[in-house]
Amino acid sequence: MDKAKPELVKAYLLDLQSRIIDALQEVDSQASSRRDEWVRPEGGGGLSQLLEGGVVIEKGGVNFSDVQGENLPKTATAARPHLEGASFRAMGVSLVLHPLNPFVPTTHMNVRFFLANKGEVQTWWFGGGFDLTPYYGFEEDAVLWHRTAKNACEPFGSELYPRFKNWCDEYFFIRHRSEPRGVGGLFFDDFQLEGSFVRTFEFLQSVGDSFLKGYLPILERRRDQPWEDRHRQFQLYRRGRYVEFNLVQDRGTLFGLQSGGRTESILMSLPPLVRWDYDWHPESGSEEAQLYETFLKPRNWADAIKS
To answer: What is the pTM of this model?
Structure first.
């Protein structure tokens, strides 16, 4: 296994965060911006950047963190029990965007790097991915999203996209609801490509750099689509699913809380407004029902006819 170069990863992640924020501010210049640098008493810190109250972005957060500790949390050692008790360094960029228009999907992206040391043994791995959570689905959006994901993976092996697409479908499945969170994308964790730090880092950059290529065209297509209060209320209802997944299942959220991370930054991903309705079901044949019937089912979107 190659020796890791964490400072190269850190430089890339900070640049990625800056590029994404710049692009989002260009899309929505009316969103207020807050930059929040923080220090973690146990080691490390981060930079949280929040956008909210815009005409396009109701709330969005793009966070960078670089934290260190003496004992890896259980969420990080589940697949590597031999590293229990190891010191660690974990860094990453994580974002969630909650647009105002119900026809613009919510999206999440995360790219991260772990470095663990136990005695003289150094272990590293990468993780991340991106996924799309529409409230009102459009086939051309899902196709573009997945083709972008596939293109990010192709230079590194044709087997990676199907593998990480399926992993995403499995990971972002709300178990207590027995339904997917959205139309998926990519998810990978504990990943090393042929034991090569350079090659795996290049793959991570390909995923990170592809996010805006996939999301901005969708946002531009839908941002000015007229909507009514019933669309808004359904959006708020479906946001409840997002909250449930993040607080009950998401490994990143649980890792952050278990490792003593900064709570405000960890929970920045939650939407500003949400609603729960008891035992609600969409009317048969409605736009809302189409989400469940067509889009909340795993599908090979990348090879669909539409583009």
So the answer is: 0.93
